[in-house]
From TrEMBL:
CC terms in the record's Gene Ontology section: cytosol
UniProt-listed Enzyme Commission number(s): 2.6.1.16
Subcellular location: Cytoplasm
Subunit structure: Homodimer.
Main location: cytoplasm
Keywords attached to this entry: Aminotransferase, Cytoplasm, Glutamine amidotransferase, Repeat, Transferase
Name of the protein in its database record: Glutamine--fructose-6-phosphate aminotransferase [isomerizing]
Catalytic activity from the UniProt record: D-fructose 6-phosphate + L-glutamine = D-glucosamine 6-phosphate + L-glutamate
Source species, domain of life: Bacteria
Gene: glmS
Organism this protein belongs to: Abyssicoccus albus
Recorded GO MF terms: carbohydrate derivative binding; glutamine-fructose-6-phosphate transaminase (isomerizing) activity
Top enzyme category: transferase
């Protein structure tokens, strides 16, 4: 039930802090140590490479998960769009572990890959919101998202839950391999929870941003580098699927290789600036598009902000920023769609769960 919320999407966006708390609760032991099923941590330890398979928003969560598995656990990781995997099957390593990320656990494209790799005898883990779903039943292992039912077609709380669960998996893998990542994950996730709530409390500001930048436009660009690039892809998907504004996410550095040709007077460009090592370069990109007439909306993180920024997100651990910046993009997309009288929860041509290949 929607309760007092106008739409399931808004309800689900608002539930994200509670979902984070639930994940923290479910993945720690009585001493506050990270806890996952031993069979899963052993499977990760045995693997020489991880292959993440997913579609849509879950694929975007996989892109963030790869950063955790590589940067924290030092496990080489590839992320593949499920529907492309069979045509562009990479040369597999000797001991691969497949991770399927799927909110519904029913996505046919992902299942086709699972059937294929099972035939070859490879191990698999499904990260899903639905216990007993097809992908959960058919994989060797399951990690649950604990996000509660997600009804709106646009995925919101499942994305942040997927990223949080992947961060836990990677931290456990690092611990098992005696790698000191210098991150005390659960307190960091608790900070994320507070930061998410702060943005949700600022929903009016998100509505203003949507009105100012997206009310008139036919297209919009999302740019970012590093972690912010992954979130830009997700932000653009969110906006396009519910508001029908043509939106594209790009790596800041790619603009000059073609996309900048599309910038006209007034084209909205939403830029994320949450990563210290690319702060200067993404701001350089903003200047480049502004010089061509773009209307830039910069969303930065506390500590990296500059006067020209449109909105400043609360500070969290740099690799966990996707959990926070995406909430701003979810709300901005929600209001942009609302302002256009779109059917937010049931956008045209889309189904919640895509059970055909
Ligand atoms: O249930 P799944 O996570 O496997 O679904 C994958 C995609 O179909 C899904 O994320 C889709 O992209 C959403 N509508 C995005 O909001």
């Amino acid at each position: 039930e929607k309760g007092t919320y106008a739409h399931f999407m808004l309800k689900e966006i608002n539930e994200q802090p509670a979902v984070m708390r639930k994940i923290i609760q479910n993945y720690q032991d009585d001493e506050g140590q990270l806890k996952i099923d031993r069979n899963i941590s052993e499977a990760v330890k045995e693997a020489d490479r991880v292959y993440i398979i997913a579609c849509g928003t879950s694929y975007h969560a996989g892109l963030v998960g790869k950063e955790y598995l590589e940067k924290w656990a030092q496990i080489p990781t590839e992320v593949h769009v499920a529907s492309e995997f069979s045509y562009n099957m990479p040369l597999l390593s000797e001991k691969p572990l497949f991770i399927f990320i799927s909110q519904s656990g029913e996505t046919a494209d992902s299942r086709a890959v699972l059937v294929n790799i099972k035939e070859k005898g490879y191990k698999s883990l499904t990260i899903t919101n639905v216990q007993g779903s097809t992908l959960s039943r058919e994989a060797n292992f399951t990690m649950l998202l604990h996000a509660g039912p997600e009804i709106a077609v646009a995925s919101t709380k499942a994305y942040t839950a997927q990223i949080a669960v992947l961060s836990i998996l990677a931290q456990v893998a690092a611990r098992d391999n005696n790698i000191d990542t210098n991150v005390d994950l659960m307190p960091e996730l608790a900070k994320v929870t507070t930061a998410m709530s702060a943005i949700i409390d600022d929903a009016d500001r998100m509505e203003e941003i949507a009105r100012e930048y997206l009310s008139e436009t036919r297209n919009a660009f999302f740019i970012g580098r590093s972690m912010d690039y992954h979130v830009s892809l997700e932000g653009s998907l969110k906006l396009k699927e519910i508001s029908y504004i043509q939106a594209e996410g790009f790596a800041g550095g790619e603009l000059k290789h073609g996309t900048i040709a599309l910038i006209e007077e007034g084209t909205p460009v939403l830029a994320l600036a949450t990563q210290e090592n690319v702060n200067l370069s993404i701001r350089g990109n903003v200047q480049e598009v502004e010089a061509r007439g773009a209307k830039a909306c910069i969303i930065s993180s506390e500590g990296l902000e500059k006067e020209e920024d449109t909105y400043v997100l609360p500070h969290v651990h740099e690799l966990l920023t996707p959990l926070v910046s995406v909430v701003a993009y979810q709300l901005i997309s929600y209001y942009a769609a609302l302002h256009r009288d779109c059917d937010v929860d049931k956008p045209r041509n889309l189904a919640k769960s895509v059970t055909v290949e």
